[in-house]
Amino acid sequence: MPELAVEGLVHVYRQSAVRALDGVDLHIAAGERVALVGQNGSGKTTLVRHLNGLLRPSEGRVTVDGTDASGMTVAQLASTVGLVFQDPDRQIFAGSVRAEVEFGPRNLGRSGPDLRSAVSHALAATGVAAYERANPYDLGQSRRKLLALASVLAMRTPVLVLDEPTTGQDARGVARVRAVIGEVSSEGRTVIAISHDMRFVSEAFERVVVMRGGRVVLDGPPSLVFAVSAWDALRSTYLEPPLAAIVGDRLGLGSTPTDAALVDRLGGR
Amino acid sequence: MTIALDGVGYRYAGATSPALLDIDLELRDGEVVGLAGASEAGKSTLCLVVSGLAPRTVGGQIRGRITLDGEDVDAWPMHRLSQRIAIGFQNPSTQLSQVTDSVFEEVAFGPMNLALPREEVAARTWAALETLRIDALAERDPRRLSGGQQQLVAIAGLLAMRPAHLVLDEPTAQLDPAGTHLVAEAITRLARDGVSILVAEQKVDLLAAICSRVFVLDGGRVVLDGWADEVLADRRLAEFGVMELSTVQLSRAAAASGVAGDRLERALHA
Fold this sequence. Notes:
The complex is a heterodimer. By secondary structure, chain A is an alpha/beta fold. Chain A is built from eleven helices and ten strands. Chain A folds into two domains: 1-79 and 161-168 and 191-241, Rossmann fold; 81-156, no CATH class. Chain B has one domain (3-236): 3-Layer(aba) Sandwich (Rossmann fold). Chain B contains twelve helices and ten strands. The longest helix of chain B has 16 residues, at 177-192.
């Protein structure tokens, strides 16, 4: 399982001259569950697109297990880092749900029963198995988003990167996404997700990285990032701590980033 | 009363079963009404039907009666309806024209097509950009913005049209908390000016903050409707695949562990 390192990463978009990343340093150990949060336009998507080579650094570097990613092709990186886009329509192109999910693992050289089992598992985990013969564009937007997740999940990459996976999902969809993250993580694989949903972030991740203006401004477990001492920094990027953290502070119970943590403290545990 | 649906049903072309059944809904001037429901419960379809795009542009078959300010709109062509009702789609890339090179032109595109004087178009465009605090993006290429920024540009385009009625399908799906707050403020302000607004959203905390009434859809039917605070505290929400309010989730977690009490309730609603 690979370790990812981002060192002094700067990215300036050529077309617009926008400096989207302004010196990011980040080490992510194998098997970590990391949430990336921050305002729209703070550089989160730009950052994760460097992890699989879709974007290349203007300055600084990205290494995968110590090897500079600039020497690796997108195809080589794709077998290590699977990236699920925010907008599924930028990703989906096949004529059927099953064909869409087969494309990735087939490209990584899987075939026969190995391919079938990877695809079936991904379809089941995301709840789109019943639609495997359907055209992806006959699915609603939220199910199409789960399909985009399935198509990357089937590649069984050691690192899974999700760009706003719960956007537009209903309660059941969010529960599915959480279950997928839990399963991938229990296999020792790394999960990195961008999200604006602080409840989801505090409950499903062990580490939270807060970005502002192309830089990392906070980095730590939810109990630290959502603790009162960090609220000013959090609010400087217009984020609000989860309700449980606010209520925990009102009751003088210390840092309680999740409902479970708050309930534990209330019960004197 | 401005928009009224009476026994409305709708079936997409080629579909074997209807997407909407027996919908009765009234939207009054200056009112914000929320639409909640699981994915594919019919929220987006209802948005298309209320805006008139279904069946006029999308095709399919409609039944029942839709009236706008007391007039039956059945025979109205889309261009006539679209001067009264604007719709914002879930995905900003569907909404954006893809033919303009700057955010300013993109937001001005709608009012320009209303054949308004040039100064009026510019004034409305700047006002819309400032409302959503994206005036600094005016010169940028809309196709090269982040997903959330594109969503704000799409909503600014709707504000600049100054519609009498507005339908929004998950307007804050891709927005950060600050953007969500700005859109909520813009919706509240429009309603105060008399615009009637129908908002489909997964974010129930947002619906609680801006809506007077909420309709919950399941399988194309209205299964719950009433005052927002009552509907959003209904125990059946989970059964219909709708997320519960943050406050409700927290209270129930505490109750389940036997640690609920007045102290927690007071802190929750402080």
